[in-house]
Specification:
- The N terminus is likely disordered.
- By secondary structure, the protein is mainly α.
- The protein has two domains: 92 residues, Orthogonal Bundle (Rna Polymerase Sigma Factor, Chain: A), CATH 1.10.1740; 74 residues, Winged helix-like DNA-binding domain superfamily/Winged helix DNA-binding domain (Arc Repressor Mutant, subunit A, Orthogonal Bundle).
- The protein is globular, with a radius of gyration of 19 Å.
Length: 189
Amino acid sequence: MASLQDDKTNEELVQEALAERPGAFRELYDRLYSRTYRLAYGMTGRHELAEDLTQEIFIRTYQKLSKFDMRSSFATWFYRLAINHSLNYRKREMKDIHKGSEIDDQLPSGAEQNIESNVLGQQIQSQINRALISLKPTHRMVVILKDVEGLNIAEIAERMSCSQGTVASRLFRARDLLARKLEHLRSAL
């Protein structure tokens, strides 16, 4: 049986969280976690880092919750914050790399399984993730929002605070770059 809380809008839960009703922010977290994690994973390409980034996004959301002015939907406001935080995270990560940090290029865990098809599948997924990670953050973001999250161009434009034409252009460019970077996989598929 669904609880009464399931019927509440995100905006109602925000108001309750601001009024310090126990559990209100947790309900928002539960509703938004999986999409936020997928966004973070798309930006980092690593599960541990994606989990850390996801938690940072929710901490930032909680800290800035009082700044939500109800002019747009909470989901739009939240994803704009999540996107900005993800892009800022990527900038920090690139600075760390330039300061001498090493990039972990290992295959995902379990890549040494005995079944050849699983190994091949994991290697292909790893190469796709590397190609996605190699894109500029704004290009990567539109691919994630369109192809992973399933948003339409207008929704992406709203969340990224840019025009639909800019989104379409970035998406075209990103897909073209990915296709070129992954051309060698055509024979494996």
